[in-house]
Amino acid sequence: MAILVTGGAGYIGSHTCVELLNAGYEIIVLDNFSNSSPESLNRVKELTNKNFKTYNIDLLDKVNVEKVFLENNIESVIHFAGLKAVGESVEIPVHYYHNNITGTLILIDIMQKYNVFNIVFSSSATVYGAPKQVPISEDFSLSATNPYGRSKLIIEEILNDVYISNNNWSIALLRYFNPIGAHESGRIGENPNGIPNNLMPFITQVSIGKLQELKVFGSDYSTPDGTGVRDYIHVVDLAHGHLKALEKIMTRSGVEAYNLGTGKGYSVLEMVAAFEKASNRKIPYSIGPRRTGDIGECFADPSKAERELGWKAEKGIEEMCIDSWRWQSQNPDGFQKDKNSIAHVLV
Ligand code: NAD
Ligand code: UDP
User: Fold this and answer.
1) Which of 102, 131, 268, 330 would you call most buried, defined as having the most Cβ atoms within 10 angstroms of its Cβ?
2) Is position 96 annotated as part of the catalytic site?
């Protein structure tokens, strides 16, 4: 019996593949490499000394997705595949809705056909919109402020309906806060295309001189230093959360949402200071205006995941910054250097 990991070559997917393999699971990866490199999977194999099948398939390609279920004995799916850039989703909403929502509809349709009813879905704290208070718990009201967030919200609602229609389904909706960091080996990490939108990859690219300075988006929020506060979580802690969610959905049916965060918020300036300490490099920055659509403060109440999944984030901000720095300094061009590398991919 195998776990199908859609989007397994991506940032969070590759780290989760390592933890799944280390825990003894058989995995199959499906990815179209639209935002990742096959090299990340070579490195997953190198880190774990284990092999697995990889399908270079687009989730929108129903015929080939079905082949994966025909050819393998799949027990559960961890569904990472999706597009995630907020700004891009505003520019090309139809593409985002089609990729994220239609891709998921095709996946769950085929899962039903092959009697596979266990799915862990990558949702996001963005489904809380502009929360009225912090910390945020799972029962807060949900809303979306951009097409990316709306695609996550719609998929959550679809999965709720799917469970209502057939109680065999067992579904975990994992609402990630802000994943950063990298595997401690420095071999896999976040590999953004072009200029990063997110804070940590922007900081790491400033640290190696690829970008000149960080622009801090606003210093007039009602936070202790006026800059935006977020709940940063180490990607390896996040990966462990998937294993715990998987264990849970394999033992009961239902649909449950879980916040995966640390419960602690850090401001932009605190992150700059923590990264400077970890890397022993100065991060030049200047204060600019607020970014449209940003909220001041966002951090999780992660107690439901601790209570029900037995999961809790273990790694602190120092480790997150040290691991981000190691990955960036050892791979200044991400997986680029190896872009011609060929993973042993099927189809
Ligand atoms: P990522 O872009 O690194 O990984 C996503 C993977 O999915 C990529 O390898 C991409 O090639 C693949 N993919 C996209 N569309 C596909 C399709 N139609 N068919 C097959 N493969 C496809 O992103 P990530 O940071 O690892 O995020 C994983 C998931 O978690 C995404 O769904 C994302 O929306 C969600 N998420 C991410 C964050 C974050 O800050 N990184 C926060 C909250 C939620
Ligand atoms: N941020 C910033 N400069 C940047 C990128 C981000 O000041 O170049 C701030 C942003 O306003 C927010 C925090 O850093 O307060 C985290 O932003 P990110 O985009 O990483 O996550 P999100 O806002 O989606 O939670």
Assistant:
1) 268
2) no
